[in-house]
Task: inverse folding
């Protein structure tokens, strides 16, 4: 293949990468190979050779189409890196790293009884230093995961007879029956999906709840999914994969475009179910919704979607920070519509309540 | 680039030639899909097909096998699928029987007996091994790895290994490799994100619902007994159903089922009565059916 063709194609791949399509070198190599089998001068052939080899996701396709049109029409310069959406980064009043610097007198290690009191307190009413301590303790939460029975078997002392292993051991002993082997189902992590409401009414709790979500992602990175819901649904699982809680929280804040806005929980939930849930993410999963259930619009959509969710999920858990307030009655429209489809209704306003939530997830 | 030195007869001259061959087997492809299959054959790369359920992913693999006159080997993925079900397994009962028979015949040569035990004839080949064994230079086999998103990630990693070098090693027997890599079609319904490493090994193609004209052509080709009016009405109605934001939009498989049902009922065109009794072939959720019935079934195909 002539050198300028290769150069043109690698230049195209660069444009694609700038637009967010993961056209890595191995794929570019494949594209150059593919073009070699087709007609380099036919735009359709080049289009398909690139699309088949460089894209890896339906979300890549519109970007690819835009870049292809721009690059091969000569308007390369007009393809810019897509500007990040305008975001309001929520700065924590004090993160554990900076607390000590700002307030030299602050003792970062709390005593046992102080921790005990702190555990029970509503996180919305904490001072900056106390909040930092709660964050530190949340980061220590290491088991927010659930198990389910797998189809696969493992050797056990009791359970069903394992004919293969039994026969194999008989074979090994030349036909002498020495004993029976048994097997039982293994357990595997069950998928946990957390949907955290980040709207205005939840803003005192959203930060702590996302940190809880971070603990969940850390304890079972492959089977936990996290979404933020406000005026739109954002998948933040990838952002939460950072091991270090504070940098994870920074990337998450940057990724969520609708902090402290309104709530359209019904629509968000519908979007979640349409795009992810029904395709399998919610199937057999434990779905945790952390929200106060203050639905702006008509709550009937939320009810409908909760019914759908309930049919798909293994267990639906609703965590409402206001539940712990004395005399709380679930009277908001959204909460009333959702409650019939909720298996576990828990609080989630304090460290202790979040630990309880972790327990509910583990035992579901 | 590996494997591109010679071009056997099973490769086609151009995507167009392949598209025509597919059409002879009643599969109508568009440019993208034909190019994808063409490149997959030429570059010896697995084809990774994604798309909504019922857009013809599995059907493509079957047709490809028919076009190449090759055996189709299907590996249906599910949660908990493991190597013993995908690769090979030893036939323990037969081995035991062999041992007993040898004992009865008074064979005392232990060494020989042992080597006999791990003979090829006691190996049960599962789809992946079958695909490698049946694939020859003149005629590659077609391996369909269906719904990879249902298997777990461990299996994905394992599949990646097999798809990278097309050899399988059986500790007791040695390495088994394919004369020529089989044509591999991997399908996914996107219930789970498949790992990028696997996709990187493959050509990625996203299958859309067909456009109206192509859907008409497909139904006409598959259901020749249906009247032209009926075919056009069904295709138009299916197109409208897909825009209704249903829980499960009908795929081309559903429109074919629908037409078949209507033909079986002797319908010459779609009217509210025939549509109402056959709606179960297109809509698979009670909520969807209610929505469509509430909106008036007639609205689906009026004006088509």
Result:
């Amino acid at each position: 293949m002539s050198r300028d063709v290769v150069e043109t194609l690698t230049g195209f791949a660069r444009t694609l990468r700038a637009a967010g399509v993961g056209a890595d070198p191995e794929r570019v190599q494949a594209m150059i190979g593919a073009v070699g089998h087709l007609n380099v001068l036919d735009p359709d052939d080049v289009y398909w050779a690139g699309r088949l080899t460089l894209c890896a996701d339906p979300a890549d396709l519109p970007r690819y189409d835009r870049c292809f049109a721009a690059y091969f029409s000569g308007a390369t310069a007009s393809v810019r890196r897509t500007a990040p959406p305008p975001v309001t980064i929520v700065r924590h009043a004090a993160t554990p790293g900076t607390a000590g610097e700002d307030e030299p007198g602050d003792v970062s290690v709390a005593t046992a009884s102080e921790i005990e009191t702190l555990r029970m307190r509503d996180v919305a009413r904490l001072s900056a230093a106390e909040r930092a301590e709660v964050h530190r303790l949340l980061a220590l939460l290491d088991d927010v995961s659930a198990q389910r029975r797998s189809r696969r078997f493992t050797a056990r002392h009791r359970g069903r007879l394992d004919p293969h292993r039994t026969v194999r051991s008989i074979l090994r002993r030349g036909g002498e029956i020495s004993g029976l082997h048994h097997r039982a189902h293994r357990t595997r992590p069950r998928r946990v999906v957390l949907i955290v409401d980040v709207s205005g009414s939840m803003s005192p709790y959203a930060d702590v709840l996302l940190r809880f979500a971070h603990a969940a992602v850390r304890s079972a990175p492959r089977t936990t999914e996290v979404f933020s819901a406000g005026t739109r649904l954002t998948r933040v699982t990838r952002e939460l994969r950072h091991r270090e809680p504070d940098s994870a929280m920074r990337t998450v804040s940057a990724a969520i475009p609708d902090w402290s806005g309104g709530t359209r929980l019904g629509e968000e939930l519908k979007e979640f179910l349409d795009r992810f849930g029904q395709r399998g993410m919610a199937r057999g999963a434990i779905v945790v919704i952390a929200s106060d259930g203050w639905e702006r619009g008509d709550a009937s959509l939320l009810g409908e979607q909760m019914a759908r969710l309930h049919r798909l999920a293994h267990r639906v858990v609703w965590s409402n920070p206001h539940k712990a307030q004395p005399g709380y009655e679930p009277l908001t429209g959204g909460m009333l519509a959702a409650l019939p489809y909720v298996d576990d209704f828990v609080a989630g306003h304090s460290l202790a309540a979040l630990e309880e939530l972790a327990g509910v997830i583990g035992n579901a | 680039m590996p494997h591109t030195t010679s071009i056997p007869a099973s490769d086609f001259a151009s995507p167009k030639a392949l598209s025509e061959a597919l059409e002879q087997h009643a599969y109508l492809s568009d440019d993208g899909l034909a190019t994808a299959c063409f490149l997959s054959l030429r570059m010896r790369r697995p084809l990774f097909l994604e798309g909504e359920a019922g857009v013809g992913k599995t059907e493509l693999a079957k047709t490809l096998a028919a076009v190449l006159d090759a055996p189709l080997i299907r590996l249906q993925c599910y949660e908990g699928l493991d190597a013993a079900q995908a690769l090979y397994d030893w036939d323990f009962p037969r081995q035991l029987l062999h041992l007993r028979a040898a004992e009865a015949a008074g064979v005392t040569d232990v060494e020989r007996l042992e080597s006999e035990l791990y003979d090829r004839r006691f190996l049960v080949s599962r789809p992946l091994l079958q695909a490698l064994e049946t694939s020859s230079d003149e005629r590659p086999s077609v391996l369909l790895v269906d719904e990879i998103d249902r298997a777990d990630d461990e299996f994905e990693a394992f599949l990646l290994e097999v798809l990278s070098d097309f050899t399988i090693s059986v500790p007791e027997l040695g390495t088994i490799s394919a004369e020529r890599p089989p044509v591999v079609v991997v399908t996914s319904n996107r219930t789970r994100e498949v790992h990028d490493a696997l996709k990187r090994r493959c050509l990625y193609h996203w299958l859309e619902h067909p456009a109206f004209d192509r859907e008409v052509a497909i139904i006409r080709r598959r259901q020749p007994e249906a009247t032209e009016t009926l075919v056009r009405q069904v295709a138009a109605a299916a197109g409208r159903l897909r825009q209704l934001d249903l829980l499960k939009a009908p795929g081309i498989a559903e429109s074919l089922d629908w037409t078949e049902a209507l033909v079986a009922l002797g319908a010459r065109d779609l009217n509210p009565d025939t549509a109402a009794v056959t709606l179960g072939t297109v809509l698979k959720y009670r909520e969807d059916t209610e929505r469509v019935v509430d909106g008036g079934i007639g609205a689906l195909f009026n004006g088509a």
